[in-house]
Design brief:
It is a single chain. The chain is built from no helices and 4 strands. By secondary structure, it is an all-beta fold. A hairpin with a 4-residue loop joins strand 1 and strand 2. It has one domain: N-terminal domain of TfIIb, CATH 2.20.25. A 4-stranded antiparallel sheet has the order 1-2-3-4, with no helix packed on it.
Length: about 50
C-alpha cells in the first residue's frame, strides 16, 4: 500500500489552494505529494521535505 498525503495543494490553473489527496513519491531526494485538482483535473504537486 502506497503512502498518501491529504492536505492543501496549490492549483496553478485555478490559482487557488485546494484540498486534495495524493500519493507520496521521491523525486530528486525530496518527498513530493502528487494529486489531481478536484475542480479542473490538473495534476498537483507539493514538496513535503527531504526523503
Amino acid at each position: 500500500m502506497a503512502e498518501t498525503y491529504k492536505g492543501e495543494f496549490y492549483c496553478v490553473k485555478c490559482k487557488e489552494k485546494r484540498e486534495a489527496e495524493g500519493e507520496i513519491a521521491v523525486a530528486n531526494g525530496r518527498k513530493m505529494a502528487k494529486g489531481v485538482c478536484p475542480v479542473c483535473g490538473t495534476k498537483l504537486n507539493r514538496i513535503l521535505g527531504k526523503a
